[in-house]
Amino acid sequence: MSGPMIGLVGFACVLLLIALRVPVAISMGAVGAIGYGTVTGFGTLGFVVGRATFESVFPISLSVVPLFVMMGVFAGHGGLSRSLYQLVAAFIGHLRGGLAMATIGACALFGAVCGSSIATAATIGKIAMPEMRRLGYDDRLASASVAAGGTLGVMIPPSILFVVYGIMTETPIGALFVAGILPGILGTLLYMSAVSYMTLRNPRLGPGGPKATGAERLRGLRDVWQVVLLFAVVLGGMYVGWFSPTEAAGVGAFGAIILTAVSGRLTMKVLRAGFAETATTTAMIFMILIGATIFNYFLDAAGATQGLIDWVKAHNFSKYEVLLLLCVFYIILGCLMDSLSMILLTVGAVFPLIKAVGFDPIWFGVILVTLGEIGMITPPVGMNLFVLNATVPNLPLQTISRGILPFVTADVVRIIILVLFPAIAIWLPSFMGK
Questions:
Q1: Distance, CA of 280 to chain centre
Q2: Which of 91-95, 118-122, 231-235, 258-262 holds the top average pLDDT?
Q3: Confidence band (pLDDT; 50, 70, 90) for 246?
Q4: Core-most of 2, 27, 306, 353, by most CB within 10 Å?
């Protein structure tokens, strides 16, 4: 059996175990361990599993994960999400579909201090859904705008997916963060355009609300200075070279805790809950990372990665034909598993192929995260859909799914634009260090 075929069998086994509700980390680790032992013999398996476990969580660069998670957790506890939603709603809430657009805008702004799609969707959803329902918004548009807007949390820096991709591919994390800014803004505008299109066809989906006064808008601007300050210090510090990504993460986490204290919400209960949520989320990410590392050892031992590169060369695929095949593959895979697991499972095999055909690693990181965003809102395993279903009362999963297609279309358009104009992703990183 050829290397790529062995790799495909391994992927199929992992997906089967996930479908049987085996945890993703265990699925990848078990298949990787058994596959490695089958290919090379079980005599060295214990050493390889121990080495993979150590190597996957040892790099000091991984310390950014719990720190950025903590930054997002305490930003949510500090009440920043409500201030952001009220600010954007004050400016555009009176338009047709305005509250849905405000939801997307608030998700983008909250993503600048969060880094997690699920946390962004859950936090903003609890605030936005009651307001949109109060004004008579259709649940399909309202819930889909929250689910889609939540995905911006992993594109607009800081982003956990960029951190993981950067560590696994040895691509500078700071450059990836900066690369996500313009595509994140583009995604925000495209999502808002999707809302505008839907309400243009059927105005009853999202009626306009009352227009805010100038005083209300000024009050909204005053209430979000914390987010602007935190984002400017963290990302600006990395951009001009004041901080490494790890130092920026530490500054961001500390700043989020201070801002929560300034808002008067930092009680011992909030502090304990924030630390516990940070530890739980970090442990989940690290467990998946360990499983993915073991699985990648199996792929290397089987020769799957090099076999895939040789197969592409033998068929004379152009670089854009390779990209199209990968996009289709990731969209299908995103329907079956969460984005973090999807990237960890595949990037070890895919990244050498991307380098071999000549794509920029930073640009491809942006494309890969965009594909991950699509996976977060596509049934049957779109994580943001399940989050809203679990956190918003009387919101069936089918209702959210029926409203999501225009936003998936907007993501596909974004990928096409990024392929046609790659400078959108790589222009800002090109100035770093100059």
A1: 18
A2: 91-95
A3: confident
A4: 27
Quote the number of domains for the chain.
2
Burial of 293 (0-12, 13-18, 19+ CB in 10 A): buried
Q: Which of 302, 329, 363 is the last residue of a domain?
A: 302
Provide the residue range defining the domain that includes 54.
Answer: 1-58+288-302
Q: What token pair was written down for 433?
A: 């260090």
3-state secondary structure of 264: coil
Q: At what angle do helices 64-77 and 245-262 cross, to 10 degrees?
A: 20
What tokens were used for 140?
Answer: 């399909």
Assess whether 19 and 91 both reside in one domain.
Answer: no
Q: What is the pLDDT of residues 125-150, one digit of tens each?
A: 888 999 999 999 999 999 999 999 99
Residues 428 and 182 sit within 8 Å (Cβ to Cβ)? yes
Does residue 272 fall inside a structural domain? Answer: no
Looking at residue 113, the DSSP 8-state letter turns out to be: T
pLDDT of residue 2: 67
What pLDDT is attached to residue 416? 96
Q: Which residues have a Cβ under 8 Å from the Cβ of 310 and sit 6 or more positions away?
A: none
Instruction: For residue 423, report the phi and psi dihedrals to the nearest 5 degrees.
Output: -60, -20
